[in-house]
Amino acid sequence: MAETLEKQENVRCEIIRLRDYDIQAGTKTEIDDDDWPGIVEKMIASDIIIFATPIWWGIQSSLIQRAIERLDEMNDEFLETGKSDFANKIGGIVITGAEDGAEHIIGNILNFMSWNGFTIPPAPSVSWLGDATGETKDSLKRKFKRGSVYSMVKTFARNEAYLARLLKSNPYPDG
Fold this sequence. Notes:
Distance between the termini: 33 Å
CATH topology: Rossmann fold
CATH superfamily: Flavodoxin domain
Helix content: 40-55%
Shape: globular
Structural class: mainly alpha
Number of strands: 3
Strand order of the largest sheet: 1-2-3
């Protein structure tokens, strides 16, 4: 996904692997000097934010759920003030896994994003459902470029980048 955004749409990307950070459980932005506030700063500085998660037992990963929970305080501020740090930011989702449940996860996460001020473009998700056991990054890349998933990746990237540029030039008015 990042490669397509960079090459096709000239969008600079940074991948943040949540498992590489200390993110404590909770619903506040600041908790026990963990890494979460730095991640939030990067999100606020971005124009496009894509949550990527595998499917685990029919639901998103615990790490994505923890990120959602840690954004709860910002949601409370949005509900109180009508202003969101995620206004004029585009949301999207990438899902992988060997189980069904993608539609359920997409609905949950897009609902969360929408209620936190993100703008959701058409075709805001890409799903690849299959067993990747034993696959390498290169073998998976070759698989994706042959099938309908790659077509959706290109559409997803185009829509995310287009809407981000549009909102950068024409932001929502302040409330």
